[in-house]
Amino acid sequence: MEWRQMLGGSARLATMERSIRDQPGGRRRPPILVIGAHRSGTTATARALRLLGLQIGQRLDSHEESRELQQLHERYLRQVGAAWYRPHAFIERVKTSKHRKDCAEYLRASVDREFASIFGYRKNLGGLFRLARLRMGGLWGWKEPRTTLFAPAWLDVFPDARIVHVIRHPLAAAMSIRQRELEFRDRGDPAKQELDDLDFCLRLVAAYIRCGEDVALQTPHYYKVHFEEIQTHPREALARLADFCSLRFTPAQLATAAGTIRPPTSPSRRGLAGKDVNELVTEHSIVTRLGYAWDLS
Q: CB-based contacts of 183: which residues, under 8 Å, 6+ apart?
């Protein structure tokens, strides 16, 4: 007999989901938020944490993200005249207590209404099992780069959330954003203005990094890690990260997680003249402040 019939169909599943979600008590822990600029190694980091025991949903895209969560963020960004690649209007807006409160209320109401779908849980037995694990104190969280922008409001919703901030060489992240945009255009996708400009992409990455660093001023539960450190010493770096997240793992799990991390490579300067690099150095001091070099091969 098909399992939906055994349970009485999708209506029964929906009832069970509401029961798990609304049942008083339980031990659902604060979430773990993996933040960082787009193309900064957050996908690889989240995937490794999942292998170490962090529950991050099941209905996710190839980047370990819930599309519903992406849309939740993007809808609010559009409401204030912003987008993931043009976040500045939003960043300035949520600096005020009034608009931060408005944003937090938007997130809280959405989560109360559609917790399972927003965080990538299916309405099937697997999804119900994972939701029940949360009620029993299972460690959970999510990864979605826009969370970097929304982190202050998310902290209003989940005050004890733990923040994992992943930073990658800004030039590498910026070049990857630009390359992805060009590939999307080649496939016929609508162009996103200025994402073909490396200086614009660097400014975008820097804005995300500053937003992520600002979170450290708002919570003691903040951990910053350079993705290159994870790439160079995956076992040690992931073990420290898992300890921050209170994950319990076996040596075999750690070996498997470390095995998913690709070794570091220097960003290619193909198509960049020395003059271009020198100008970027002058304009983007955040790179050297973070300890990165510009002498790239």
A: none
Cβ pair 145, 38 in contact under 8 A: yes
Task: For the sheet with 141-143, list strands across it.
Answer: 141-143, 32-35, 162-167, 222-226
Report yes or no: 57 and 120 within 8 Å, Cβ to Cβ. yes
Planar angle of CA 134, 137, 143, nearest 5 degrees: 55
The CA distance from 251 to 191, in Å, is: 45
What confidence tens digit (pLDDT) does each residue in 83-101 have? 999 999 999 999 999 999 9
Provide the token pair at 250. Answer: 């076996």
Tell me the pLDDT tens digit for each residue of 178-218. 999 999 999 999 999 899 999 999 999 999 999 999 999 99
Chain segment 141-190, per-residue pLDDT in tens: 999 999 999 999 999 999 999 999 999 999 999 999 999 999 999 999 99
Can you give the pTM of this predicted structure?
0.90
Burial of 159 (0-12, 13-18, 19+ CB in 10 A): exposed
Specify the 3-state DSSP secondary structure of 78.
helix
| Residue 81, helix vs strand vs coil | coil
Region for residue 41 given its phi and psi (left: phi exceeds 0; alpha: psi -120 to 50; beta: otherwise):
left
